[in-house]
Amino acid sequence: MVGGEFRKTLAVIVVAFVAMLIGPSLIDSYTLTVLIIYGMLALSLGLIWGYGGILCFGQAVFFGLGAYSYAIAATNIGESTVPFLLGIAIPFAFAFLLGAMMFYGRLSDVYLGVITLVVTLIFYKFVNSTAGPEYVIGNARLGGFNGIPGFQTLNVPGDPGAYIYDIDFYYFCGVALLVVYALVRWLLASPFGRVAVAIRENEQRVELMGYDVRFRKTVLFAVGGAIAGLSGTLFASWAEIVTPGMFSLAQSAEIIIWCIVGGLGTLVGPVVGAMALAYLKFLLGQQSLVDTTLVFGLILVLSVLFLPRGVVPTLGLLGRKRRGGGSSRRRAGRGRSGRGRRAMQEDAAKEGADV
Amino acid sequence: MSSVLETRGLTMRFGGVTAVDTVDFNLQRKELRCLIGPNGAGKSTFFKCLTGQLKPSDGQVFIDGAETTGWDPHQVARLGVGIKTQVPSVMDGLSVRENIWLAANRTHGREQARHRAADAIERLDLGTIANSEVGRLSHGERQRVELGIVIAGEPWLILLDEPAAGMTAEEVDRMADIIVDLNREAAIIIVEHDMQFIRSIARKVTVFSQGRILMEDDVDAVMQDQQVRDVYLGKKA
């Protein structure tokens, strides 16, 4: 079983690697890079929501925090290695603290959603209001709604003159995503990951087994924060500016939509969802006939109605049916109402392509 | 002297209702004890105070000499206490094997846990459904899976809340055999309604009524007692 999992992971990585090589001949690499970055951002929520059962409405906080940490550190230091690491470490630490507060406080899922939402708002409002000259960290002015421009972008470690940009940066992001994917797969296959999934399935039981559920959820949440932070760091280097918009509710909502449409309970689903929808948004942004937000709302509604498991798990299911191996037996006692999304995740997790 | 579980003046109030009222309870090593009583007598609340799922309003709980009042369930479990809840608490989306493996993995490495899980599966005769998803199993099977989870943790004290509820006669018999077998290594407390089941396994019975212990004696003596009949058995007949 573990061997099969490993082979599947390897297959995904190989396919993704080939796609990464072909990609630039179809879409320009500058756009592709940001799609990959968004894919990684979606992966972070796909991990904690789809596998940990933690619905975070504020994943954008860690994305923005990663970007700002990088931008501020890079302005001060002038070489990108330490800022790059800080862009991961600071969101990790912040997610750890926030998670510890929520999980040790035994907040229910609803309040968890509310708190993460409010934290997003606080960051958005605060960073927007830092336009004055008194908001300075070292040499870096926070710049309020104007954001922070002109920091050192990613360079070859140790050589600030050797920028990693354009197609090199594209490959860097692509490989980073593959490495993160492989690490997350490894994490999920480890006892830690298996307990995390068990917590999603039945928190009480895992606790009665003697596992410290609060601590484990906190760690998983922090790992999600670190991945979102990494994607924010890469985004900063890509955009060459960071703005408060990264903390916005719209950004947070979009991440959730990517995950729902792509498919919860898988890792590839959110990544594919993010890339497809972000590209669609890019295309829609070039015209003014239809409103982008409207289209996104429509896609979300249609997807929830007709593909409740998300695109990728549904495709996986279809593929299995065609091969004749799959069974779509419904589970006994399924009639209980109010399971909604959770049931979907569970289904996706076990039936859908576990990729 | 060799008391493994003790409560002193244990009290649990919910608003104006006192569900458990100054209960002094004592369990000896390797003892098998049944808790009975009519609905609302406070059995399950008492049970939840022992496992840490509820924090008692007053009084103390001691497990193996250590005071555990107000501990979290995972801390209680770590002492070596296996807990089975009233409604089967299992991980529906995972296989039987994974469910049981997870329990064994807390104290054992990956491989060792696999062996422990295999042992528990064999012991409970779950072999044919070991790779099935728990959510698709019947109620009786799920009860057994939960018991497997409890066993895999190798507890020396086992708390079972209605282990025979909703099972067929055949399943109940099998459950009784398993419990007697488990009792060779562990002290067990069982909250149960099924009198037939209790007769087949119990020696000593504690009767709860309105949050208090009404009486505590051998199973036969309890069955004969008029007061017990009035509050509990009488209603049933």
Automatic annotation (TrEMBL), chain A:
Q: Per the record, what is one GO cellular component?
A: plasma membrane
Its membrane topology: Multi-pass membrane protein
Asked if the Swiss-Prot or TrEMBL record annotates the protein with the keyword Transmembrane, the reply is: yes
Q: Which Pfam families match?
A: BPD_transp_2
Q: Where is the composition biased (Basic residues)?
A: 321-342
State the CDD domains in the record: TM_PBP1_LivM_like
Q: Where in the cell is it found?
A: Cell membrane
Q: Where does the record place Basic and acidic residues bias? A: 343-355
> Which residue windows are transmembrane per the record?
12-41, 47-70, 82-104, 110-127, 169-188, 219-243, 255-282, 294-319
> Does this entry carry the keyword Cell cycle?
no
- Which Gene Ontology molecular function entries are recorded, alphabetically? branched-chain amino acid transmembrane transporter activity
Q: Which UniProt keywords apply?
A: Cell membrane, Membrane, Transmembrane, Transmembrane helix
What protein name is recorded for this chain? Branched-chain amino acid ABC transporter permease
Which species? Pacificispira spongiicola
From TrEMBL, chain B:
Per the database record, which ranges form the ABC transporter domain?
Answer: 5-235
Metal-binding recorded as keyword: no
Q: Superkingdom of the source?
A: Bacteria
Cite the GO molecular-function annotations of the record: ATP binding; ATP hydrolysis activity
The record's keywords, sorted A to Z, are:
ATP-binding, Nucleotide-binding, Transport
Q: Which SMART domains match?
A: AAA (SM00382)
Q: Which InterPro entries match?
A: AAA+_ATPase, ABC_AA/LPS_Transport, ABC_transporter-like_ATP-bd, ABC_transporter-like_CS, P-loop_NTPase
Q: Name one GO cellular component term.
A: plasma membrane
Q: Has the keyword Cell division been applied to this entry?
A: no
Family annotation (PANTHER family): CONSERVED COMPONENT OF ABC TRANSPORTER FOR NATURAL AMINO ACIDS-RELATED, HIGH-AFFINITY BRANCHED-CHAIN AMINO ACID TRANSPORT ATP-BINDING PROTEIN
What protein name is recorded for this chain?
Answer: ABC transporter ATP-binding protein
> What organism, scientifically named, is this protein from?
Pacificispira spongiicola
